[in-house]
Amino acid sequence: MTKTAVVTGASSGIGAATARRLVAEGYHVVAAARRRDRLDRLAAEVGLAKDDGPGITPVTLDVTSQESVDALAASLARCDVLVNNAGGAIGLEPVAEADPADWQRMYEVNVLGSMRVTKALLPRLIASGDGVIVMLTSTAGFVVYEGGGGYTAAKHGQSALAETLRLELCGEPVRVVEVAPGMVKTEEFSLVRFRGDAERAENVYKGVPDPLTADDVADAIAWCVTRPAHVNIDRLVIRPRAQAAQHKVHRVTTG
Ligand code: 8X3
């Protein structure tokens, strides 16, 4: 029987890379996100799931909508792995200039979205006999930085959710894994944070030799979920070699 993995935020970046990677590992991947056109392209590229084999099933999902999450849960015959990847940052303003709407949105997507999807799929994860919940947090889940208040608060919250779940599920056949990446260069993370300002987004990675890629993080996620059932990777922190700590980033200057 092919195992089913649900990946949220699967339309781009780490989510799409994880969906691709888990199909390569033999999973039926339910690739869930708001942008259906992108999911359909991913499915066309990787292959639609059929006849209980590996492949992609695209599902339109808004993790901020209970109705949407309920529809996802109702569509699943089984669920062995859940990757709570949907999330993101909005803005880099100091607290003195913070917009409560941005903070609310970040909490809604990163924390409440992960909680809603986890809660809805938990019965199936338990029923699988070897469920794995991956919480894609960030190094921002345990370190703060100037301008990052809303995002770091949300990621601290999501990290707390992972730890709480691990305590509450002790004794159930479900592992809870937190994967916390540092600097990852994806097509959209910084672009969304800077509201479409491509130059500011690009400057985040300027001069940094080899920031992590979405594939690097997908590789780490795949490793965590494919450990034997009794091995729980509590938290995996992954950074590029050029980032020794949140504020310690090596940059090569030219000219
Ligand atoms: C992204 C890492 O450093 O931008 O989660 O907060 S950081």
TrEMBL record:
SUPFAM superfamilies: NAD(P)-binding Rossmann-fold domains. Keywords: Oxidoreductase. Coiled coil: none annotated. Residues 3-183 form the Ketoreductase domain. SMART domains: PKS_KR. GO terms for molecular function: oxidoreductase activity, acting on the CH-OH group of donors, NAD or NADP as acceptor. The keyword Oxidoreductase applies. The keyword Protein biosynthesis does not apply. Belongs to the short-chain dehydrogenases/reductases (SDR) family. This is NADP-dependent 3-hydroxy acid dehydrogenase YdfG. It comes from Thermopolyspora flexuosa. The lineage of its organism: Bacteria, Bacillati, Actinomycetota, Actinomycetes, Streptosporangiales.
